[in-house]
Structures are given as structure tokens and as C-alpha cells.
Amino acid sequence: MEPLKVHKQKLKILVTGGAGYIGSHTVVELAKAGFEPVIVDDFSNSHPYVLQGIEKIIGYEPITYHMNCRNLDDLDQIAKEHDDIKGLVHFAAYKLVGESVKEPIKYYENNLDSNISVTKFCLKNGIRSVVFSSSCTVYGLPDKLPVSEAAPLKEAESPYGRTKQIGEYFFEDCIKALHPLNVISLRYFNPIGADPSSEIGELPIGIPNNLVPYITQTGAGLRELLTVFGDDYSTPDGTCVRDYIHVSDLAQAHIAALSKLLSDQSTEPKIEYFNIGTGRGYSVLEIIRAFEKVSGKSLPHVIGPRRKGDVPMIYADPSKALKDLGWRAEYNIEEALSHAWKWEQRLPELNLKQTG
Ligand code: UD1
């Protein structure tokens, strides 16, 4: 593939967790938008193949540091080698809801420590523009749907959710202390799918926790059948409803956020919050039907008990992102599922099939 046109002056953006699922898709969109992504990732939850996949799409291997962003000395090393980093997109965090319930220390330690280190790094190096990877989980059980950014943060359903809430409060307190930061916190709904090229996608380690990778692995015959976690919720068909968003759309939201931050001439510290979702909720059964339609396969499934900590229904009011960032989701659910399915089917060829 021809390398993409290189902009005369590419702005460098540090991307922690840039080899992860959302991180890698964002690295691709950053490069396509003319930025120069610099990845820092400890590869604890990502596969080295991702870098090749990114290269196949953007035409060059992104600058990558195999490091843990909690280590300030390592970050200092990056600053020495790149004194022209203009922004930070901070993904690096653990994200498994169930695991966080069992291992809260691991989650608090990693997710909160990394916020502190990257913030110190930004302050030390005069980097103002920060995009923080947050989640709709900060809303807990919302009173009103669709949920807007004005909704109060209710009690989080898991330690993972709490670390995202604390992350937002942490940045808010830094802003109150007049630390020179301009932060946008993106509250993601449920990312699914893969880059349309099928060169990168989600690579869950072991048995997937999330719905769509479990579905695609079941479709591929790696799992016997999907268990639907409860059909007795007070939702239209009794199964939980979520706002599933294509990961490339989600990646684009980071470009919109960064562009807003980098063009902001004001020096006043601030933080803003944006929901990044489609505005449309789908039930688990609707997702199964949509997958069956795009794959042409029937998906074996059974109804099981509810999963602890699941919110019955949540979907976004994404109107603020459209108004202030000029961003909205472009892919529909069938496109997202078909990209997820295409990616799943490429894994054997890439030798990346995970059967744990
Ligand atoms: C949760 C978090 C989200 C976080 C994500 C990361 C909330 C509201 N959302 O998403 O912020 O980024 O985890 O892991 O806390 N399901 C089944 N069978 C399965 C798997 C899932 O029926 O085998 C159902 C679940 O009950 C849920 C839906 O599918 O209703 C989506 O589940 P999942 O993909 O795990 O995402 P969330 O739990 O919504």
C-alpha cells in the first residue's frame, strides 16, 4: 500500500495504550488525519502484531515505546527523544468489569497511578491538550435515558467504573488547582467492530468478556454457544440494552477532541465531558439477530442468569459531541458487526486465533 501523504509539520501526539483495541484504531485515524502518533504501551493486554497491522494501513510503523506509562523515568526518556509532543491521548488502563470486582487493588493501582504519571509528564513538558479515555460506566444506573453529560454520576457498578469516575475527578481537581491543562474526557459507550481494512481489530486474551467478540468467536466455532445474561429485565425484549459504537467512529471522536483542544487559544485550564455513542440502543437479542443477518449463520445461544453488575439499559445522548466537536457516528450496527466478523475470519490467516 502507498504511504499516506505526509503533512509538512506533523504534530506529535503521545498515545498511552496505543497498541490496545481503541488505542490502535485511534493511532490509525491520527496518522490519517496528519498527526504523528507516538505509542507507549506495555503490551500487557495487546499483541505485537498490532504494530504490523497499523503499518499495513498507514504505510509506516508508528514510533512505539514498549514501556509502562506509570514509570515517570521512562516517560522522561520519551520526552528527551521527542521534545515536540503537543498532546496526549490517555487510554492505558485495565478495563474488565468482572476482574475489577475480584482484584480492586490491581485496578486502583494501575488506573489511578497512570493518570498521575501522565499528568506529571504533561505538566513537566508543557503539554496542555489531554484526551482522557472515560466510559459511560461513570453514570452508574442513570435516572433518565438517553443519558446526557449533565446527568449526575451515580454510584459506579464496579471498581473499574469507580476508577474512571476518580480519573475524571482527578483531572477536575488539577484544573481547579489551575494546573495548565485543557482536558476532554470522552465517555465511550460500547465499542465494537474493527477497521474496515481488517488489518486490526479486537484481540481479546482468553475467553472474551464482551458480547461482540464472544458472538464472533461463537460464529467461528471457537465457542460452543453464547449465554445471554438474563431475559427478565424491564426492557422491550427482556435483555439488556446498550449503545454499540463502531471503534473507528470512536477513534474519530479523538481526532475531533484533539483538534478542538489544539485550536483553543485560551490559556484558562478546563475540562469538558462528551458522550461518544450513537444515540440508539440495541438489546442483546437484537445484536444476535443483526449478527445472523450479516454473517448468514445462525448463532447458537441460550438464556442464562443475569450477570452481576449489569445495568439493564443505557444509551447516549450524543448531541453535545455533534454541537461542540462536530462529531457523530457514521457506521450503523450492521456495518460494525460485519467488520467485527470479517476481522474474526482473518485471525487464522494472521495466526492470531486465541482459544484460551
Ligand atoms: C462494560 C462497561 C463499559 C466498559 C466495558 C469494558 C457498563 C455500563 N459498561 O460494558 O463501560 O468499557 O464493560 O469491558 O458498565 N452479554 C451477554 N453475554 C455475554 C457477554 C455479554 O449477554 O457473553 C451482555 C451483557 O449482559 C450486556 C451486553 O451483552 O448486557 C454487553 O456486555 P459487554 O460487551 O460485556 O459490555 P458492557 O458490560 O455493557
Outline the structure in words.
Strand 1, helix 1 (about 20-30) and strand 2 form a beta-alpha-beta unit. It is globular and about 55 Å long. Strands 3-2-1-4-5-6-11 form a seven-stranded parallel β-sheet, sandwiched between helices. The two termini are about 35 Å apart. The longest helix is centred in the N-terminal third of the chain and has 21 residues, at about 105-125. It has eleven helices and 13 strands. It has about 350 residues and is an alpha/beta fold. Bound molecules: uridine-diphosphate-N-acetylglucosamine. The site of uridine-diphosphate-N-acetylglucosamine (UD1) has 24 residues, from helix 7 and strand 8. Uridine-diphosphate-N-acetylglucosamine binds next to helix 7 and strand 8.
Radius of gyration: 20 Å
Bound molecules: uridine-diphosphate-N-acetylglucosamine
Taking pLDDT < 50 over at least 5 consecutive residues as the criterion, the unreliable ranges are 1-7
User: Helical stretch count?
Assistant: 11
Determine the structural class based on helices, strands and strand pairing.
alpha/beta
Strand order of the largest sheet: 3-2-1-4-5-6-11
Number of strands: 13
Beta-sheet strand percentage?
A: 15-25%
Note the main sheet: 7 strands, parallel
What's the pLDDT, averaged over the residues?
A: 95
- C-alpha end-to-end distance: 33 Å
- Portion of residues within helices: 25-40%
Name the shape in a single word: globular
Query: From N to C, what is the helix and strand string?
Result: EHEHEHEHHEHEEHEEEHEEHEHH
